[in-house]
Each structure stands twice: as structure tokens, then as C-alpha cells.
Amino acid sequence: MKNLLIFSLAGLGLLAGNVLAQDHSPYRVLATTRLMGNGGIDFVTVDNAGRRVYVPRGGQTFVFDLDSHQYIGAVTNCGGRGVAVDTATHHGFSSAGKIAMFDTATMQKLKDIDVPGRPDGIMLEPVTHRIYVLSHEAPNLTAIDPKDGSVTGTLQVGGAVEQSQSDGQGKLYVAIEDEKKIAVVDVRALKLITKLDLGETAGEPAGLGLDVKNHILFAMCAKPDVCVVLNADDGRVLATLPLGSGTDGGGFNPATMEAWSSQRDGTLTIIRESSPTNFAVVQTVPTKPGCKTSALDTKHNRIVLICTERPSGTNAVSAQVAPAASSNQAGAPPRNQRYTGPAWLELFFVGR
């Protein structure tokens, strides 16, 4: 009876795990964090192993605790667009005109790395264990050794590249925004294998999700705002689904079998993969206007989004408006005004 009881409890544990994995309750904003600062933002990076969130802003990179959501500190003189972290070496890299390499433990900058092109996105590729810098100008891909920050190779795939995903087996998929294609790269040889065409109805891909098990890509496109679902092996388009306006990030969570897209209009689109041939938008989650980039907390199955918000009150806004050309009409405000003052950086944690 004792053995039977243990077996039964184990079975109940497995059943509970399956029920949890199939949780289809609605997503919602579970927590928010805000911090005042200056400068624009682009990508948010989640370091799941180190349990931290990185947000480059202005001339520094803000660091938050992924579990408590509390602000930890900032890596100074280390701004840019996105961050990639190598847990093994405790080195982080911030994507800018020069790649800033920093120590994740001390949060101190180590050095600058000259990278050609116009760096935008950045990621750690697990097979070659290289940091890949994604640039909008040639060369589109630059590989960096995270141990010492040395450049180990470059590759031109054409066009303005955006988000990328690794299959963990030697292929890197890269969204090419202005070509409406997905480049497939052999990371061991650092060679372009092919390009997958998203088709006539596709927009410009920015976010990208990958179901590694079923070899399915989710290309989050703007103008028009659609998600193109395609076979990662042969490029066959499997579905085209509607998104909110202004996507600039997305991904796929194998634990829930759901893809997501974060949009500038303040929505988060959730797409469920019921089978390798069945895909549907199951929820549009309200977030906040400007929350266009995102990342995944794999421990809690939560999506982290970022945006900025000006302080409330017209006096605060008007006092921080940059000088602009005079208006053609007396008494009218200047045209092309741009807010340059302090604003809230807000982090949103969305889950079930």
C-alpha cells in the first residue's frame, strides 16, 4: 500500500503539471514598476538565469530584479538599444554605435568594442556561444566572443535586420524588415543558408517567435499589422493573423504553446498554437501606449514590456520641450516640438 500511495501521489503531481501547462485563463497585467529618468528606450532584455531585467536608456543601462521587480542599479556610460548577457562569463553587452561590455556582477563597464554597421538588436547564440550584434547596415551580423569581447566574424544578409531566434541546433533565424523575409543562417559556418519569403500580404517583420519543436516561425509584421506563421524548414505560410498596431517585438513560449506580439498602440496579442497546423488569436491584452518591445520570463511564464510616460501636468511638459522653429501663426505652439525632459520608465509584467 505504501508503494501504491507514492505512485498515486506522483501521478497526481504529473496531472497537476499538465493542468498547469494547459492553463488558458486570461492574461492580465500582474505588476508594474516605474523609475524616473531621461532618454529614449528600445529593447527590454530578460536574463532568466541571472533573474534580472536590463533596459538601456540614455547613457546608461537600468537593472531590475526579475522576481521582486525592484530597481537594483545602473551600468553607467553604457546606453544603447538592447542587451545580451552571458551567464558563464558574467559579461553583458549593450548594443550601440560602440558595443559596451560590462560585468554583470559589479555592474561596471569594462570596455567599448568597435562594430561596423548600425547596431540595433543583440542576442546570445547558444550553439556557438557567441554574442550576435544585429545591424541595419552592412555587415548585418557581427559575432563577438563573450569571454574577451573580441570580434570573431561578420556576415551580410541584406537589408535592415531586426529580432532573431536560435533553434539551438545551429540555425539562426533573422527578421529582415525592409525585405519582408526571414534569413536562415548557419552559425557554425557563419553563412547565409537561404531566405524565407513572407508573401505578398505580409508587412515589415520586427518581432519573431520560434517553436523549435515543430519548426514553426511567427513573424510579427507592421504595415500591415499581421503575424505570418510559416514553416521554418521550407517557408510555407501556414496562417496570417491580425495584430494590433505598431508591433516591434514578440516571441514564443513552448511552456504554454503561445506566441505573442507587443504593439505600440498599447496592446499585447496572444496567439495559441493548438497544433502544428492550427493557430488563432485568443486574446488582446491592454497594456499601455508605447509598450512595443517585450521579453519572456520563462520561470513564471510572464511577458515583460516597457514604455515611457511624461510626468503629469502641463507645466512639467512645457518646461521640458526642446526649442523648435517658430510657428507660421501668431500665438500657435511651435511645430515639431519634441519632449526631452525626464519621464517615467515603466515595466509591465503580464501573465496569468
- Going by CATH, the homologous superfamily of the domain at 198-318 and 343-352 would be YVTN repeat-like/Quinoprotein amine dehydrogenase
Helix content: under 10%
Strand content: over 45%
CATH class of the domain at 198-318 and 343-352: Mainly Beta
Q: Any idea what the shape is? A: globular
Could you name the ranges where pLDDT drops below 50 across 5 or more consecutive residues? 1-20, 314-335
Structural class: mainly beta
Distance between the termini: 38 Å
Order of helices and strands: HEEEEEEEEEEEEEEEEEEEEEEEEEEEHE
The count of helical stretches stands at 2
Rg for CA atoms: 21 Å
Mean pLDDT metric: 89
Task: Examine the coordinates and then state which fold CATH places here, giving the name of the CATH topology of the domain at 198-318 and 343-352.
Answer: Methylamine Dehydrogenase, Chain H
- CATH architecture heading of the domain at 198-318 and 343-352: 7 Propeller
How many DSSP E strands? 28
Q: Could you give a short account of the major beta sheet?
A: 4 strands, antiparallel
